[in-house]
Amino acid sequence: MTAKVLSAAAVVALAGIAVFSYSHARGPGGAEPAVQTAAAAADGTPINACTLLTDAEVSAAVGATVTPAERRDDGFVGGQGKYAPEGTYSSTCFWQFHADATGKNDPTLPMGGKRFAILNAMVWPTEKDASGFLQSFRDAFKEEIIPSNPVTIDIGEEGLWWGDGTAVRKGKKSFGMSVFLQNGDKESQRKMEETLARKIEKRI
């Protein structure tokens, strides 16, 4: 059970796809952020999660300086599981608390115990597919992959908070926003996550 909970705290597995692409948070940085704005990306165009929030906005929400945004896309992920049909694109943006950029790692905690924020944005072939993103969290709870029963939040066309982050759909796009304080204070994390989610929802 411990291993399952620790894994779920960082990732919700969508039949082979990491909702928040946490695996990328462990590895080297991905492609550099594109210069286009989020508003310029038309439906079906690969989305850039790092255009949806500024570093200053993340710092303000978490109450601490964060490292510059790092884009770590999974790219086109269609066909990797029942929740992701062909044509699905996944983009991830990662921020680490600047004060934690150096120091010892705790291998029992996500990112070695260092505090971070992570945003995953996805473009889907249809709105129904995007709704499946939120359903995957409900299914994950039923299957005991995550410990918390998702609760509805009033953000976007559909929104929920699943215990370690928000998940929101707007049209054929969706996103997940998580903040990890590594101290068990989920209520504070939730406030930060919802604050950032409301900003993202206006831009996606």
Largest sheet: 8 strands, antiparallel
Q: What is the typical, i.e. mean, pLDDT?
A: 79
Order of helices and strands: HEEHHEEEEHEEEEH
Helix content: 25-40%
Q: How many strands appear in the DSSP assignment? A: 10
CATH topology: Protein Transport Mog1p, Chain A
Strand content: 15-25%
Please identify, by name, the CATH architecture.
3-Layer(aba) Sandwich
Give the uncertain stretches in residue-range form: 1-44
Write up what this structure looks like.
This protein has 204 residues and is α+β, with helices and mostly antiparallel strands. It has a single domain, classed as 3-Layer(aba) Sandwich (Protein Transport Mog1p, Chain A), CATH 3.40.1000. Helix content is 27%, strand content 21%. The chain contains five helices and ten strands, in the order αββααββββαββββα. Strands 3, 4, 5, 6, 7, 8, 9 and 10 form an eight-stranded antiparallel β-sheet that branches. A hairpin with a 2-residue loop joins strand 1 and strand 2. The chain is globular and about 40 Å long. The chain starts with a helix and ends with a helix. Residues 1-44 have low confidence and may be disordered.
Question: Could you give a quick summary of the protein structure above?
Answer:
This protein is an alpha+beta fold and 204 residues long.
Map the helices and strands:
Blueprint: H1 2-10, E1 13-14, E2 17-18, H2 22-26, H3 55-62, E3 70-71, E4 75-76, E5 89-96, E6 116-123, H4 127-142, E7 151-152, E8 158-161, E9 166-170, E10 173-180, H5 186-203
Antiparallel strand pairs: 1-2, 3-5, 4-5, 5-6, 6-10, 7-8, 8-9, 9-10
Helix pairs in contact: 3-5
